[in-house]
């Protein structure tokens, strides 16, 4: 197969190496674990990314989740343009914050009060602080391979780039802080019960990805989320469901709606900002009202509720809500077709692939065995994944550049993209 021309991208990467550590502003973008050269994006439209050399790629990471309506979706672009004409930032309250909050709460009954921030990292960090204040306890419990942003206490056994680069936590996080984080295998309720028994009245909260996206896609076992809800309630700890990736993607009300569970606190990001920097955390009023200026827990942000982010979020979430009955079945059907189609090509070629999929999130793990937690995912053949990634990229299909990240599909993907992707996979496996 002939290589795509990427002269411009190569030159831009060479410049970036002299500007940014590793040539990137976020580690996974460096393609270190899959090899090959990262294309530089010039623009994107619908389901397609176009690089600096004019090559076109079907996009299967969608800015890691936000672009559920496709790139440069006209109502979102128009909303941002309209808002920008009224200034990009005020540092003061606007009606749009209330409009988006009402929309979010209509989709998430668990959220009685909420606050906007600028990223998922801020949302999870703030939710943890609230949980500690509400319970007067220090320990937090997370799961191996789950990623909740890059704040100190949440990098312990984290997924995403931490797993991709094989970093055991992070240098610069004091041991005293890391010790306050317990990390357990996902999908193992007995381990959670044992931790609460070993640390009576010490655990402030459990935080988890309700469907893991950052170790590759790993669904919760039947009854797992309900089990965590029961255990936290029994032990006076809070359940924080991190829906940064899954919120408005698996259903309008995210995983909480899909699996019928409740949470004390929910964290959101990505889709809620329609592609602009935005996050949120919210939940039960009794906890949220501990926040300043009502209560003693401090949290703040100049760009929180930024008007451009609110406009993009309103356009995106508003469109999803107005068209939900058509959109979610369509996402399911197209995702199923492409995810299973590629897995079938792997099987025909004798390549061991385990497919995990929930709606429009999925991963092809290069292992013959089921993947129910991070240890299972880590047994995947990352070298074969890297070869597959490079072959697909060269055929115009851009997958997340790590075995430990999920694919994300949007409404702009249709039968033509499915067919082209399966054909590219057939050639790659051959
Ligand atoms: N941590 C993100 C995926 N889980 C990657 C962010 C990025 O590199 O843009």
Q: Treating each run of at least 4 consecutive H or I residues as one helix, how many helices?
A: 15
**Biggest sheet: strand arrangement:** 4-10-9-8-7-5-6
The assigned structural class equals: alpha/beta
Low-confidence runs: none
Largest sheet: 7 strands, mixed
Please tell me the overall pLDDT: 96
Q: How many beta-strand runs?
A: 14
CATH level 3 topology of the largest domain: Aspartate Aminotransferase, domain 2
Question: Rg, please?
Answer: 21 Å
Shape: globular
Helix content: 25-40%
CATH-level-4 superfamily name of the largest domain? Type I PLP-dependent aspartate aminotransferase-like (Major domain)
Cofactors, ions and other ligands in the entry:
(4S)-4,5-diaminopentanoic acid
Q: Tell me the number of structural domains.
A: 2
